[in-house]
């Protein structure tokens, strides 16, 4: 793209200081508007949000824990896309989880270990996705409370399966005996904006919601085989009650299994194929899900070709006509892998304006090859294919006895193990530099990284001392790694890598912790959200800025979570370096590859309110408004002990009432492009 060749020399704003205040702080010259909060009505059928725990019917309100988010331009009137419109659009965002206590008058209740059915259904309905229409009025943005495309997708919304696992016996359930349909989506973390105007929502920590009673491992091995038990363990589906005790609640009505389906315990009296109990329900989750936001009646499609894991997000690389596009994905758990999917279809630019959007999704997301990354100490790396019958992914595999491509994709983690992929420090968001195609990946932290298990790409193991809350160990502050595909091609099976920046307090040891020489203007911890500004933002002004969001617990004794802006460098602009790790009595050296210290090319742009995570980010095509999510302010409080009053506290730093996750809009007072 010839309009984006000159890198801006400086970040043209004054860094925001670290802060523990109960406000969203931005640089002078910028303003914050609160746009869309937990409980805000979206279709005219419910009243204003009381915010006292009495509210119900979240199918008609904003859900909780706003996360990944995309802006899609709408035509000036009507419901058709107009990708270039910066005044009217659809904002699509995830509601990952809940701050349970604030959803009820006096916190969650149970009686004799049994949760009230109404409380459980409410908590479920606060999860999922929102589609809302937003408009720029004279000077400020607002959401349209009765927009005709407004929609909530919840754990109850019908979904369909497509790709190689659709119809597999692994997906046979009472709800869909042929394994082609499911109900809802849950723990929707980061997003993906597809160039054909659809939204990807990614199912992350879904396993925790499932109940499995003591003894189910043995029962499962007897009824289904040891492979199922091994796979459930590998995916964190342990014998336990399940999040929030949902399955203790009584059914809403006879035959209503919306709650019961979260109990995957095998009933030995039921059919072995899973169509009479809920033994296969966990296989319905852990997928990338595609939504057409321009058709409120459309059924979300679970794209099984992209594998099953704790999907953080899914970002498409550069699209080049005639070349097969790549989609980059992290599996967010300690010591998990990074993946890319390469379509079988080559990119056709006309697809960007096609009206059969989910059919275009079928074309690019149902057929292709999933790869997992192996990073070598010399700064090179390989993409290893997850193809049944190749190498160890065969029936002859002594540990896993892979049975089919559906088996390989449903159990992508087992395939990654068999292939010898590199165990990373919690892969979160991916982002692609639209100028050179380099892929950046946040590795948020890893408390289980030891001196002995460090490698060149996950090179730190140390203790981060905190002034309050106790020390954090391992890779306590996280880092951001970046890959450059060989030949800058999305189709490449090899790449080079280095580490863009290591998170650290600026006061920590530069010899083995603060390796990127962060200072007071840019020190951060636990990078998570990651986004490159749209190229259209910066015509003639250079490489789009990269934005970094944090979800931290290690540095929160000093500062609330934050958003930083960066002028990125390039893979290989630094050098190999050997550091000495020391943790838990073990000491050893590790050689890694570190990019050029960011210095003034990385600057803190925003600090959030108390106990929040900063996550989700997009902008209008003109770059003059950016949308950011403030997730779970005051998450450690309760109705009896409220620990944040945001957003009511935004104007003055104090306020009253329960905190609410919310989307904000940031604009420049002079109307200019944000960050430049
Ligand atoms: Fe939902 Fe890994 O963050
Ligand atoms: Ca995240
Ligand atoms: Ca996180
Ligand atoms: Ca969170």
UniProtKB/TrEMBL annotation:
Residues 632-662 are annotated as: Disordered. Residues 638-653 have a biased composition (Polar residues). This is PhoX family phosphatase. It comes from Sphingomonas liriopis.
